[in-house]
Amino acid sequence: MMVHTGQSDKIVNKKLRDIIVYFTFKTKYLTEIRLTKLIYIAEIYSIEKFGRRLSEINFLNYYYGPWSQEVISAGEILSGGDILIEFDTTLQGYDASFFKPNVDKTTLHLFDEDVSILDDVLNDWEFKKTLEIIEYVKSTIPYKNSKFGELITFDEHIEESISMTIENDDAIVSGTIDAIEEYNMGLGETFETKENLLNHLQSL
Predict the structure, then answer these.
(1) What is the DSSP letter of 148?
(2) Which helix (H) or strand (E) holds 60?
């Protein structure tokens, strides 16, 4: 894949590039602080949904929540290509860097699972106030487990998410076995559709 950059002698992480471009094209006009927080939220959502990081970029516990030099650096490299960074003033009167599309179309190489995570983030947070987003990211376990200026680690949150998934899977398996035994005894429920059956199993 060819990555358009404003500085051709520098290389940007392709996964991070695609995430930045995806959020930028979906929102049209995005401040740097919101972009960084949305990417961090995507990491949390990916861990909780799939038990893995979305990317491998670093975040620090910093002013206004998680902060990443890698996001800023990638934006500077990409600006002038598929995206453009402009300096402007927010509606609240703060100076900010704004990410906006610089071309009509772009090419992305994201897995469907990754896109689903990014869409979940946008559905939940695209129209929320920046202060609400900051409040949320500061409430997340990885952020709370780190001190100011420290690297935020996700390992413990990943392990916890995987453990919960295993526990839920065990409950479904156990419930399925019980249902089979009840059926053999002439008891239990019958389901007209596969969806009804799956909903029942997930509720066990």
Answers:
(1) T
(2) strand 60-62
The string of pLDDT tens digits covering residues 62-113 is: 999 999 999 999 999 999 999 999 999 988 888 999 999 999 999 999 999 9
User: From the CB of residue 125, how many other CB atoms can be counted at a distance below 10 Å?
Assistant: 19
Torsion sign, CA atoms 157, 55, 41, 165: negative
Give all strands of the β-sheet with 30-31 in edge-to-edge order.
30-31, 95-101, 83-89
Token pair for 22: 């995806």
CA distance 34 to 109: 23
d(CA 45, CA 83): 25
Q: Show the tokens assigned to 11.
A: 């290389």
Angle at 126 between CA 89 and CA 158, to 5 degrees: 115
CB 12 within 8 A of CB 3: yes
Give the pTM: 0.76
First-to-last C-alpha distance (Å) of the chain? 45
